[in-house]
């Protein structure tokens, strides 16, 4: 990815969109591009947090590994999504693992370059804060779901969440495998398949491969324990 392409990518992000052209060019020029094959480790827990990262192409996941070796996926990252933003605020070690789900290109930025951009345009900080708050809410919802909801409720919540991230419409095309989705909702792939079957039998969704069509948003919201619904 050349300098012009990096600048176009950065300009498309809300928290960089208002930066002057010269600052954006310096930020893009300071980035290091790396390519990762599926399964490649981008960052490991306890790595030094001296940079923040941006997915340029492909998809990646943030995850933790428990003492028993089980893996819990925390977040799926697509093109244009940053991670390791804590490097800007406090440095320290990276709190999770990051790995590529498919062929993925990642841009790494020294934390000091983002700090300089934020000093020049404080709105950058507010946009980053909004992003962190959104992810915190999603993480809290995941913890609540894993602790309190049955598997069908967790799957219903995930489908609604993915639909809200898309371009509208009632069909969600899952960008990850059943195995990866099972790690997100805390289940085995077999149990996940049974949960989708139950939702389909209840008339809430229709499943065709990786395409999930939402037939009853209000019913899915009720299954996911969303009082106000997302219909």
List the helices and strands and how they pair.
Blueprint: H1 3-11, H2 21-29, E1 32-36, E2 41-43, E3 51-57, E4 60-65, E5 71-77, E6 82-83, H3 86-89, E7 97-100, E8 104-110, H4 111-120, H5 123-148, H6 151-165, E9 171-173, H7 178-185, H8 189-201, E10 205-208, E11 211-214, H9 217-223
Antiparallel strand pairs: 1-8, 2-7, 3-6, 3-8, 4-5, 4-7, 9-11, 10-11
Helix pairs in contact: 1-2, 6-8, 6-9, 7-8
GO molecular function: DNA binding; DNA-binding transcription factor activity
InterPro entries: cNMP-bd_dom, cNMP-bd_dom_sf, Env_Response_Regulators, HTH_CRP, RmlC-like_jellyroll, WH-like_DNA-bd_sf, WH_DNA-bd_sf
Domain Cyclic nucleotide-binding: 15-100
Descriptive notes:
GO terms for molecular function: DNA binding; DNA-binding transcription factor activity. It comes from Solidesulfovibrio aerotolerans. Keywords: DNA-binding, Transcription, Transcription regulation. Pfam families: cNMP_binding, HTH_Crp_2. With 231 residues, the protein is of the alpha+beta class. The chain folds into two domains: 3-134, Jelly Rolls, CATH 2.60.120.10; 149-224, Arc Repressor Mutant, subunit A, CATH 1.10.10. Helix content is 44%, strand content 23%. It contains nine helices and eleven strands. It has helices at residues 3-11, 21-29, 86-89, 111-120, 123-148, 151-165, 178-185, 189-201, 217-223; strands at 32-36, 41-43, 51-57, 60-65, 71-77, 82-83, 97-100, 104-110, 171-173, 205-208, 211-214. A hairpin with a 5-residue loop joins strand 4 (60-65) and strand 5. Helix 1 (3-11) packs across helix 2 (21-29) and helix 6 packs across helix 9 (217-223).
């Amino acid at each position: 990815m050349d300098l012009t392409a990096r600048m176009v990518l950065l300009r498309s992000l809300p928290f960089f969109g208002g930066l002057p052209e010269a600052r954006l060019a310096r930020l893009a020029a300071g980035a290091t591009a790396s390519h990762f094959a599926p399964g490649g480790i981008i960052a490991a827990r306890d790595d030094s947090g001296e940079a923040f990262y941006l997915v340029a192409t492909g998809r990646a996941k943030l995850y933790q590994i428990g003492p028993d070796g089980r893996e819990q996926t925390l977040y799926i990252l697509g093109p244009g999504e940053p991670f390791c933003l804590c490097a800007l605020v406090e440095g320290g070690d990276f709190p999770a693992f990051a790995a590529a789900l498919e062929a993925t290109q990642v841009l790494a930025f020294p934390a000091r370059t983002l700090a300089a951009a934020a000093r020049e345009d404080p709105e950058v900080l507010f946009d980053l804060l909004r992003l962190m708050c959104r992810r915190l809410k999603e993480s809290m919802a995941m913890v609540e779901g894993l602790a309190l909801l049955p598997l069908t409720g967790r799957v219903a919540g995930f489908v609604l969440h993915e639909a809200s991230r898309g371009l509208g419409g009632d069909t969600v095309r899952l960008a990850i495998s059943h195995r990866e989705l099972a790690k997100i909702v805390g289940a085995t792939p077999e149990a996940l398949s049974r949960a989708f079957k139950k939702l389909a039998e209840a008339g809430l969704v229709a499943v065709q491969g990786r395409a999930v069509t939402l037939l009853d948003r209000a019913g899915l919201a009720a299954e996911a324990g969303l009082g106000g619904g997302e219909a």
